[in-house]
DNA sequence: CCAACGAGGTTTTACGTATAACTTTCTGCG
DNA sequence: CGCAGAAAGTTATACGTAAAACCTCGTTGG
């Protein structure tokens, strides 16, 4: 790697093509209709290609005062969910000439490092998952265009929000299980302080309350297979009649519940119906395949990016929750006849 | 925020503190030992905090000619493996004042978009997984410091490489299964043209060839649960004596194999032993828990970043593969007595 | 007593780009 | 013929920062 050869600049290209630097900028910026003749433009392009010229992004960003780069703040990437959100957001961004930089907030619970210190790139806007709440304080400081994913519309200080219709998903789960005949429910709740999980608990409770004769208990667990297994084991061995349906806040919790059920000698779905939420790859890896609510993470990311583009242009993004739908597989069945 | 919507610059801070812009730069750059008095420095810091000053990264990058930002090119983030690689790399990077930008190459097989178009940030270096090979051509163009992950040392054009000792992992798997008494093997190979997968096949073949009376067949599948399931079903119903041990190129393939085995009425591990490679969360979600080779993805990322730091300083990173180790769980047992 | 020095700053410049403002030449037309 | 205006450029400037070069004192050692 020759340190003697520094990267060519637009001035080098200009010299090679025998024109001024401004001409190079005009040609390469595709803004030369009637400013530069075609032969000259051709010479410039050839010289640029010859030298392997790449514009200096730092200089361009400085000049233009914007970077066409957006930050996506997500909780730790322990599932593919946010990877898919990224994919969707990046696709839409690319269509508009933007790049997306990913900032997974650190796994630990401590206060997040400053996302902007990590993403050394200057930024034009931010999309933040409400689950990365610990990183929020740093974001608030900058008055960048901001879109929140799955955040309490009232609690996000007027920032635009894009939400999955989780409430409807839970409603579909409840409906499905009630129709099968279940009446004793256990809610395996994610032990994460986030609005999107509160919605699950609230919606399940209100839906079940509308049907007489139902019973709802709740167990809390961190979002991990081991945590879910322990919490479920404890809940299943609690006194009183055993629940027949286990509603989990997400698929990972359901996977832990499977192990607890197996250890307790319960068969799924014959003795216990289980549902998840997310429809990760995990859902079809376990046996029986999990009845769960499919969240279209890519679409979620697309909507988030579109909303941010709107905000950056000073518009108000159109609201409207993203629909979700129940996928019935083998983990739910009518309750055992007592 | 009082006046216009423009962000405060170091000049604004200077004016507020009653000093020159240069003084601000000196104080905030922590390079003022004996250049600025403590009281003045204090005034500057207060003014900066008061105004909510944040240095313009684009300007700084332009001035310094470097960005302290590094690109991590990975295949699609469909498992948590590369998320952990990122975590490790980002930790080491942060310790050295660097940021890491993630570039997941698009899922499709088509030619990758230019990573540098996506990561609008200018870059000081690149860490690239060899599994994102389609993005490589674009990288070659720039003569940036480059470190390859899991790449053929001979085939990477002299770029530094950091490798997991996959060969040793496969050796441990073979040893384990041979010790249990297995002789008829099926290798479920990832249908991905990558050196790191070739190593698996080669090492397994040579190790088994060293033991007389062994038999090795191979099935190929894309890295997905469904793909693995189909390939395994086909292989298990092939004529001839059924294999008793199934060595999978990674955990996801093993999960698919589980389903195929179940559908074929085979119990794991009694009728069929199965091994994986990666030790993803998936490995302990399925039943029985998977005997697999644990790859320390975070450590992998750390080594990659350390190597890149060395390359960027003009040094030659110390080679040496990263050790891996077999984790024996419930999916392997002695072969069925015929 | 004065030169040298260092503390504590300030002035100036360069990084590479995009673009506004300007210049020159040529063409068409009244 | 004279001049408007377009075509095809060029010159000059600003973006915000870091740091080299410079300046001005008060102190001090010889």
TrEMBL record, chains A, B:
GO MF term list: DNA binding
Domain HTH lacI-type stretches: 8-64
SUPFAM superfamilies for the chain: lambda repressor-like DNA-binding domains, Periplasmic binding protein-like I
Superkingdom assignment: Bacteria
Pfam family, one: LacI
PROSITE patterns attached to this UniProt entry: HTH_LACI_2
Alphabetically ordered keywords of this record: DNA-binding, Transcription, Transcription regulation
Name of protein: LacI family DNA-binding transcriptional regulator
Source organism of the structure: Streptomyces marokkonensis
């Amino acid at each position: 790697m020759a340190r003697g050869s520094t990267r060519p600049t637009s001035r080098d290209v200009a010299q090679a093509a025998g024109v001024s630097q401004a001409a190079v900028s005009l040609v390469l910026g595709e803004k030369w209709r009637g400013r530069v003749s075609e032969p000259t433009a051709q010479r410039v392009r050839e010289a640029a290609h010859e030298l392997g010229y790449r514009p200096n992004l730092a200089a361009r960003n400085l000049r233009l005062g914007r970077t066409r780069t957006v930050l996506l703040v997500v909780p730790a990437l322990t599932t593919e969910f946010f990877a898919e959100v990224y994919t969707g957001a990046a696709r839409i961004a690319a269509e508009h000439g933007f790049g997306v930089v990913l900032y997974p907030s650190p796994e630990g619970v401590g206060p997040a490092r400053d996302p902007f210190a990590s993403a050394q790139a200057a930024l034009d806007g931010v999309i933040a998952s409400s689950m990365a709440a610990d990183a929020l304080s740093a974001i608030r400081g900058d008055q960048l265009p901001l879109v929140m994913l799955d955040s309490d519309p009232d609690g996000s200080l007027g920032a635009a929000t894009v939400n999955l219709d989780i409430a409807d998903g839970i409603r579909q789960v409840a409906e499905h299980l009630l129709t099968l005949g279940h009446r004793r429910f256990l809610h395996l709740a994610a032990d994460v302080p986030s609005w999107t999980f509160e919605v699950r608990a609230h919606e399940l409770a209100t839906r079940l309350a509308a049907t007489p004769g139902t019973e709802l208990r709740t167990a809390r667990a961190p979002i991990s297979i081991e945590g879910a297994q322990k919490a479920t084991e404890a809940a299943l061995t609690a006194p009183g009649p055993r629940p027949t349906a286990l509603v989990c806040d997400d698929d990972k919790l359901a996977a832990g519940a499977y192990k607890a059920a197996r250890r307790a000698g319960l068969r799924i779905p014959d003795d216990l119906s289980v549902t998840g939420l997310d429809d990760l790859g995990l859902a079809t890896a376990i046996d029986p395949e999990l009845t769960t609510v499919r969240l279209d993470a890519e679409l979620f990311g697309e909507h988030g990016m579109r909303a941010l583009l709107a905000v950056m242009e000073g518009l108000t993004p159109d609201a409207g929750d993203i629909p979700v739908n129940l996928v019935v597989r083998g983990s739910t069945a009518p309750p055992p006849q007592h």
